[in-house]
Each structure stands twice: as C-alpha cells, then as structure tokens.
Amino acid sequence: MSNIISDSDYKEQVLNTQINLFFKRYISSQLLKRCGFYKTKGFSCSAI
Fold first, then answer.
1. H/E/C letters for each residue in 1-48?
2. Nearest CA to 29 among 19, 18, 39?
3. Is the dihedral of CA 27, 32, 38, 40 positive or negative?
4. pLDDT for 1-48, tens place per residue?
5. Can you give the pTM of this predicted structure?
6. Rounded to whole angstroms, how far apart are CA atoms 43 and 6?
7. Selection from 26, 25, 13, 20 nearest residue 48 by Cα
8. What is the CA radius of gyration of the chain?
C-alpha cells in the first residue's frame, strides 16, 4: 500500500519547510535573546 499525499498536504509541507529554512537562516538564538526572548526551561528559543 502506498501513501498518496493530497495537494493541500503537499503545499502545507512545502510551506512549513520554507518557514523553517527562513528561521534557521535569519533568526538566530542570539537575536532572540537581544530582543528579550528568554526561557527558563523546556525547548530552546530557536526551536520555538
């Protein structure tokens, strides 16, 4: 049995990939810290 990805699911996956690439390239954890984004525990700032 093969999985068939619908057009809307495919577009959503592509959009999510593009958003993730943007944040990895342009939004660093240092930038988030300079903007006042701090966390005490849990996931890292860049993961959120």
1. CCCCCCHHHHHHHHHHHHHHHHHHHHCCHHHHHHCCCCCCCCCCCCCC
2. 39
3. positive
4. 456 667 778 888 888 888 888 888 887 777 777 888 777 788 776 666
5. 0.48
6. 31
7. 20
8. 16
b/e 6-36 (16+ beta carbons within 10 angstroms → b) = eeeeeeeeeeeeeeeeeeeeeeeeeebeeee
Structure tokens at 45: 């700032």
